[in-house]
């Protein structure tokens, strides 16, 4: 049986998104959305076409810039991203070689078994990736992702182009995966089988449903209203979900504990940022030295390269300075 335990376990906190906003010119996608995902959760992000789900996943993967807000990955979190368009596959290789080259420490039996679990059996494994259908490529990418050292899978419409047997394989794989998953899907049957929580992106805001798709359908309007009646109600419900109320003493203990953890994390980030700032400042000074070195005075290509490097470093430094300010 296929084991889907990530090699390295993340901390309890996996992803914290605070007041995230994004607009394209006049098209406001979402404003001030919040997300708090813990280890082991399998969260489905749903919403109509064009509401900004892919954008959220890409922002989390730092592929698109956010307008404002904060994204924090927990300790030891390693993201594995599955993008509908760009699979991380070398089309000139065979299925088997793609796997054995990606996981050189894995023996042939384990590679064979994994591929079989994802429905590549017998001579199939010697097919070239360039000859595979979109669905087969998707299936292979997912197999790779599940074996990778990632412990937080971020999947954008993973069931697209999958036939029914492949979809069932993926359902089982997700169910037995012990890491954390955030995925976008429009497939309510798939969501009902695999999600432990649902986030609905609607009206430029996120609503949290702590249950499967049936729970979502039954509570759609009630929880939407409760969470967005006003901001105070929203944050209260997001933090409490629909768990039983905790006693005041317990709550105070938890608040203090969380605050302590938050402060420690800030102090840690601050130290790291200060170290990066001083390293970047040193790099700029070194680049300046080279730029001003008379020996380089006639090497135009080098001078251009050095000034570009300096510009990039200065840009990086500016970002570090603002991050440092945020942490104060
Ligand atoms: N680079 C861009 N410039 C301007 N608008 C963009 C850009 N990228 C995406 N958009 C727009 O932002 C909106 C959200 O796009 P996004 O791909 O995040 O939606 P989605 O929720 O993933 O939709 P779907 O369910 O169809 O995949 C769309 O209206 C899209 O046209
Ligand atoms: Mg999308």
Question: What is the H/E order?
Answer: EEEHEEHHHEHEHEEHHHH
The spatial strand order of the largest sheet comes to: 5-6-7-3-8-9
The number of helices is: 10
Low-confidence stretches: 232-244
Assembly annotation: single chain
Structure keywords:
2 domains; 9 strands; binds magnesium ion; 48% helix; 328 residues; Rossmann fold; alpha/beta; binds adenosine-5'-triphosphate; globular; six-stranded mixed β-sheet; 18% strand; 10 helices
Task: Walk me through the structure.
48% of the residues lie in helices and 18% in strands. By secondary structure, the protein is an alpha/beta fold. The chain folds into two domains: 13-240, P-loop containing nucleotide triphosphate hydrolases (Rossmann fold, 3-Layer(aba) Sandwich), CATH 3.40.50; 248-327. Helix 9 packs antiparallel against helix 10 (300-327). It is globular and about 70 Å long. Magnesium ion (MG) binds at residues 53-54, 156.
In short:
It is built from ten helices and nine strands.
Helix/strand layout:
Layout: E1 13-24, E2 27-38, E3 42-46, H1 53-60, E4 68-73, E5 79-82, H2 95-102, H3 108-117, H4 134-147, E6 152-156, H5 164-176, E7 180-184, H6 188-194, E8 197-202, E9 205-209, H7 213-228, H8 231-240, H9 248-292, H10 300-327
Parallel strand pairs: 3-7, 3-8, 5-6, 6-7
Antiparallel strand pairs: 1-2, 1-4, 8-9
Adenosine-5'-triphosphate binds at residues 24, 29, 47, 49-55.
């Amino acid at each position: 049986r296929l084991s889907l335990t990530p090699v390295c376990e993340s901390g309890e906190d996996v992803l914290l998104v605070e007041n995230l906003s994004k607009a394209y010119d006049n098209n406001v996608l979402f404003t001030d959305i919040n997300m708090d995902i813990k280890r082991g959760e399998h969260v489905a992000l749903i919403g109509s076409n064009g509401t900004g789900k892919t954008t959220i996943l890409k922002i989390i993967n730092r592929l698109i810039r956010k307008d404002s807000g904060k994204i924090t990955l927990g300790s030891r979190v390693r993201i594995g991203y599955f993008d509908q368009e760009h699979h991380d596959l070398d089309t000139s290789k065979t299925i088997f070689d793609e796997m054995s080259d990606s996981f050189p420490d894995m023996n042939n039996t384990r590679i064979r078994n994994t591929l079989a679990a994802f429905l590549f059996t017998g001579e199939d494994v010697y097919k070239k990736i360039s000859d595979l259908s979109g669905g087969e490529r998707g299936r292979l990418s997912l197999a790779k992702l599940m074996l990778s050292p990632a412990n937080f899978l971020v999947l954008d419409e993973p069931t697209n182009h999958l036939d029914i047997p492949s979809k069932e394989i993926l359902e089982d794989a997700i169910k037995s995966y012990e890491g954390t998953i955030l995925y976008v899907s429009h497939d309510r049957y798939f969501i009902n089988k695999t999600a432990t929580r649902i986030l609905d992106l609607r009206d430029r805001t996120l609503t949290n449903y702590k249950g499967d798709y049936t729970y979502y359908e039954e509570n759609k309007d009630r929880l939407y209203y409760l969470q967005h009646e006003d901001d105070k109600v929203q944050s209260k419900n997001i933090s409490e979900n629909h768990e039983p109320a905790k006693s005041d003493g317990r709550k105070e203990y938890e608040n203090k504990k969380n605050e302590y953890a938050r402060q420690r994390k800030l102090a840690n980030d601050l130290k790291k940022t200060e170290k990066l700032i001083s390293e970047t400042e040193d790099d700029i000074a070194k680049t300046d030295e080279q730029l001003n070195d008379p020996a380089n005075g006639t090497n135009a290509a080098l001078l251009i390269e050095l000034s570009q490097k300096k510009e990039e470093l200065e840009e990086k430094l500016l970002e570090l300075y603002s991050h440092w300010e945020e942490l104060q």
